[in-house]
Each structure stands twice: as structure tokens, then as C-alpha cells.
Design brief:
Layout (H helix, E strand, L loop, with lengths): L1 H6 L9 H8 L4 E6 L6 E8 L4 E9 L8 H15 L4 E7 L3 H9 L3 E6 L9 E7 L1
Parallel strand pairs: 3-4
Antiparallel strand pairs: 1-2, 2-3, 4-6, 5-6
């Protein structure tokens, strides 16, 4: 929760404690962590067993650890977990003005499928992403 707070605001998709507990109690979710103590970065992922798609829920990299390849390593590790869950397509959303994240996702094979108006609140659009595995 502390890492989420350092990385996101209400318009960035900050999860509440209750939302994180619910997601993390699901057998179809996993949390990948890199770093130490409170964690340098974490990735919350979930698989949808029936539809065979998975979702990247939250990728949080502590500002002190950015631009070191940590996010790329976590995302790459998530692809192995998704495959083990039988997932054929990974989905995500990103804030439209988060150009660094958009470049990272594009470099890993994600396509930008559509704009999500006001997804992160009024005047804060998101971009829907997907990547086949």
C-alpha cells in the first residue's frame, strides 16, 4: 500500500487497501515483487480462467528505482505466470499521458487498442492495451 501511494494518485488508479486485499485473496491473482523492505516495484496480475485472458492490474515502480529495467523484468516474468494459467491474451490500461509506460508496453509487444475517455477521472483518459502470448 505504501508503494502504491508513492507511485500513484487518485487520478492514476490508486488502489484502496480493500481493493488490494480482495484482488490478492483471489487464487487467480499473483503479486510479483522486486526489491527489498517495502519493495522497489510490484506488479499485480490476474487471470480470467474462462475467457483465457489476463490483466495487469498495477505496475508500481518506486521513483528511486525507475529507469533501471525493473518494470521490464516484472512484466517479462508475468508472461510466464500468465502462460502457466492458460492465458492467451494480456490486457492493461495506462494513463494517456504516461509516455514512458506507453513506450515500455509497446517495446514488449503491446498494442494500443482504444482510448478510454475519463478512465482515470474527468479529463484523464486511459489507453486500453493488449498483447497476445
Amino acid at each position: 500500500m505504501a508503494l502504491e501511494g508513492r507511485c500513484f494518485s487518485g487520478t492514476d488508479g490508486l488502489f484502496s487497501r480493500r481493493q488490494l486485499r480482495t484482488l490478492l485473496s483471489s487464487p487467480r491473482c499473483a503479486w510479483l515483487v522486486a526489491g527489498h523492505f517495502e519493495g522497489a516495484a510490484c506488479l499485480l496480475i490476474a487471470a480470467n480462467g474462462r475467457a483465457r485472458w489476463g490483466r495487469l492490474y498495477s505496475l508500481a515502480v518506486d521513483p528511486a528505482y525507475r529507469n533501471r529495467g525493473v518494470a521490464r523484468k516484472l512484466l517479462t516474468a508475468s508472461f510466464a505466470w500468465f502462460r502457466a494459467q492458460g492465458v492467451a491474451l494480456v490486457r492493461a490500461e495506462v494513463k494517456s499521458d504516461n509516455h514512458a509506460a506507453r513506450r515500455l508496453y509497446a517495446s514488449l509487444g503491446f498494442t494500443e487498442d482504444r482510448v478510454l475517455a475519463d478512465y482515470y477521472g474527468p479529463g484523464h483518459p486511459g489507453i486500453k492495451l493488449s498483447r497476445p502470448l
